[in-house]
Design brief:
Strand order of the largest sheet: 5-4-3-6
Number of helices: 3
Oligomer: single chain
Structural class: alpha+beta
CATH superfamily of the largest domain: Rieske [2Fe-2S] iron-sulphur domain
Shape: elongated
Number of domains: 2
Number of strands: 9
Radius of gyration: 29 Å
Largest sheet: 4 strands, antiparallel
Strand content: 25-35%
């Protein structure tokens, strides 16, 4: 058979060999023969180092739609959004002044989740169920109450 640069494939079947079919080089194979026609590396799908680079270069630089202002229309309304890419939970609430604020949904005392509900209404503070530390709705999310005998 003459070498025309075409890809050649032969197929076997139970009835015997099927004639060889020549496929002319097209697309990228024709434009970039150095790419070859072999298997494509799959490292990009499972290599942890590549994933970390993607997190830094792509995902951490992107905006995320986590809810609408109408979802937290009144003071004290909140929603919790889980960012699985970063293994992070974000608590978004409307404060008494009508401003929308977002915080990491984690207690600064022991690192537990502060708000377990997906959404709801909060009177004036978020309280960690573990030791009772409380955080305000306002922009700074400061600690507003710590039970007795606990050092900050």
């Amino acid at each position: 058979m003459e070498d025309t640069g075409a890809l050649v494939r032969s197929i076997d079947s139970t009835d015997g060999p099927i004639p060889t079919i020549a496929f002319p080089p097209i697309g990228l194979t024709k434009k970039c023969p150095e790419l070859g026609t072999g298997a494509v590396p799959t490292d990009i799908y499972h290599d942890p180092a590549i994933y970390q680079k993607e997190l830094e270069a792509i995902f951490k630089r992107s905006w995320y739609m986590i809810g609408r202002a109408e979802d937290i229309a009144s003071p004290g309304d909140f929603l919790v959004y889980e960012l699985p890419t970063f293994r992070d939970s974000t608590l978004v609430c409307r404060d008494r002044s009508g401003n929308v604020n977002a915080f990491h949904n984690v207690c600064t005392h022991r690192g537990n989740v502060v708000e377990h509900r997906a959404s709801g209404k909060c009177a004036d503070r978020f309280v960690c169920r573990f030791h009772g530390w409380s955080y305000g709705l306002e922009q700074d999310g400061k600690t507003v109450f710590v039970p007795l005998n606990v050092e900050i």
